[in-house]
Recover the amino acids of this structure.
């Protein structure tokens, strides 16, 4: 499948006159609870030719879109963010892009660009922004899906992963891992932890069981953790960070390196 994905990325480069800087797997395959028939969720960051940026209309206005989204086809869900959009979100400590940087399934990377981003993670990381994101994911899934007569195993695991990411941030004040097995030791409720382990076994099995009846111990755990984390967030204070100058510099350097090397 990697060859198929790389071919698709090359086709996108040629069709849209872009250069892909970073392409990774996101979603359940990166998080460690993919089923056999799970989609491949490919996410990428790309840069246009310098001339694209040297015009009176800014990125994201009119025809100058700052993202690419394509319909799911043959289990391939692929979309990307233009570099300036990605860097603006990175500046805000956007958890999605921070998760991309943690993915262990990398299809392609521009070493210079990615290494510089990783070096700047601590400059932009906001525990408050990340806590709000992961709490909202867990709380929304709990209210929308986990109180039905049947629920998806994937939704349970997604909610639990998000709550454990909050626990990681609370304890270490750093970007959390994205693999659920790395986060599972943060779970101190033994009964709930055992249920999660059983769900992981079901999800990763050949049987591929998807729909199950609600699990009371997990529902109670998710509800209680959401309330606890909400209270904890109210106690968090942070200094404002401003990494704009560094990110502007990274953008200009990347633009120069990518296209100069290509045209020489």
């Amino acid at each position: 499948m990697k060859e198929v994905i790389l071919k698709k990325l090359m086709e996108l480069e040629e069709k849209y006159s872009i250069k892909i800087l970073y392409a990774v797997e996101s979603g359940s395959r990166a998080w460690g609870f993919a089923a056999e028939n799970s989609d491949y969720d490919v996410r990428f960051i790309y840069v246009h030719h310098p001339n694209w940026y040297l015009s009176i209309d800014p990125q994201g206005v009119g025809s100058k879109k700052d993202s690419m989204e394509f319909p799911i086809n043959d289990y391939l869900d692929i979309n990307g963010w233009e570099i300036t959009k990605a860097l603006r979100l990175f500046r805000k400590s956007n958890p999605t892009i921070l998760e991309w940087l943690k993915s262990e399934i990398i299809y392609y990377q521009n070493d210079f660009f990615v290494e510089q981003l990783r070096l700047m993670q601590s400059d932009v990381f906001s525990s408050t922004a990340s806590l709000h994101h992961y709490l909202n994911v867990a709380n929304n899934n709990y209210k929308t899906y986990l109180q039905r007569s049947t629920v998806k195993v994937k939704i349970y695991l997604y909610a639990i992963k998000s709550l454990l990411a909050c626990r990681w941030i609370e304890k270490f004040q750093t970007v959390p891992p994205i693999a659920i097995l790395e986060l599972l030791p943060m779970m101190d409720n033994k009964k709930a932890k055992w249920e999660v382990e059983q769900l992981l076994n079901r999800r990763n099995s050949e049987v591929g069981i998807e729909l199950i009846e609600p699990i009371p111990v997990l529902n109670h755990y998710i509800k209680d953790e959401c309330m606890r984390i909400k209270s904890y967030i109210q106690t968090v204070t942070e200094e404002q960070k401003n990494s704009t100058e560094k990110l502007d510099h990274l953008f200009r350097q990347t633009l120069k390196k990518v296209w100069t090397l290509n045209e020489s």
Remarks:
- The mean pLDDT is 92.
- The first strand starts at residue 18 and ends at 26.
- The beta strands are 18-26, 40-48, 67-69, 76-82, 106-109, 151-152, 211-212.
